Every structure is written in C-alpha cells, then in structure tokens.
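Notes from hallway chat w/ T.B., transcribed later so I don't forget. T.B. wanted the structure written out for a chain they're using in a teaching module, and asked if we could keep both sequence and structure tokens in one place. Agreed to drop them here.
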Amino acid sequence: MTASDQQTKPDDHATFAHVSRGYYPTFVALFTATLLISNICATKGVAFFADSSLTIGPLQILPVITDGGFFLFPLAYILGDVLSEVYGFKSTRRAIYLGFGALILAAFCFWLLIELPSADFYENQEALRSVVGVYPRLLLAGLAGYFVGQMLNSVTLVLIKERTKEKHLWARLIGSTIVGEFADTLIFCSIAAGAIGISTWSDFVNYVIVGFLWKTLVEVLVMPITYRVIAYVKKREPTYQL
C-alpha cells in the first residue's frame, strides 16, 4: 500500500459534522422557545386590580388589562438585542425567520392536534381547544406584531451602533426597544384585542399603553444583566472583533 493510499483510506470511525463553537445557535434556540411559549400564554386575557376603577380623562388606569404573555415576551426582545448587538442584522434576521417559521409550524400542529379524533377516554378536548386552538385572528396578530417589531428592533439597534460603535450600549438597547416594542404592541393589540375579549376603547388604550410600558420597563430593569451577557458573548465569540 502506497503512502497516498494510506492518506485516502477512510477512517474507521463514523463521520459527523462539526457543531459551531459560537453562541449563536443557543441564542436562536432560546429566542424561538420564548416566542412559542409566550404566544400560547398570550391567549389569556389578564386583569390586575380588577375590583378597582381609575380613569384620567379618556385613559383607564385601573384595572390594568394585559395578556398572559406579559411576563415572558420581553425576554424575546432582550435576546433579540443580544443577537443584533453581537451578530448584526443579517444573522438576527435569520433568527427572526426561524422564529416566524416555528410559530407557523406550532399553529399547524395545534390545529391538527385538535382535529384528530379523540379517544373515548379523553375528556379534555374543549379545554385543549381553548388553550392551544388556532384562532386565525390571534395567529395573524402574533405573526404580524412579532415580525414587524423584531425587524424594527434589530434595524434600529444596528443603525445606532453604526454611529456609536462600541459606545453607548444603553442607547442602543433602549432606543431599539422603544421602536420595536411599540410597533409590536400596537399591531398585536389592534388585531388581537377583540379575540381576547377587549371590546371598549378605554380597555384597548389601556392594553396598548400598559403592554408597551411594561415591556420597556423590563428592558430597563434587566439592562445590567443584558450588559453582562453581551460582554460575555463578545469576549468569547471567536469571530467577534472589537
């Protein structure tokens, strides 16, 4: 056997592709999971201080009206900020497309699950339908709000970074959140309000304002954590160049 034959001889071990050592796949997975879970949670209308009533002019302050995804959905924008800051718009856009596809796949699977014939012993068909049933209006609201909001969030952050470079990260995080979250909240609420039981103008305004202020407030409160995560990833991401 010649030396060239030895060099081209197949290895005795099975062949596998190498997994990227970067953090991008992890953030995309978390980003997508957050979207899926929060969109299911959003099917429930939530009222805080339901026994109270407070209005200032045309604006209803109490009760506070929101949806069940309020506590988790802001995380999607925080992860989107990390993706945009570290990997840029093109890579973040890819993550947004993947999340968009995952939401459509989930909606299709939930619809198919409900349409499958139930076994005689299964007694939770209506409960299942009420939780994961595919409501076209909610699906449209979630997809439209998510797509527009996340795109604007990423574009805004990257445009600000083009001017500020590595300085003023706080301005990028807050500025992109204000633009993205407002567009997302306004679009989602405008389409979904009736589907979750909001029928008055005051409730709708409350729904939009509370949702927007809450998501923006979360971004500000967790900014120290976002700073640390971004710094950690930048330092250890092999392809990132300061």
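Follow-up for T.B.: The CA atoms of residues 186 and 208 lie 6 Å apart. Might be a good example for the class.
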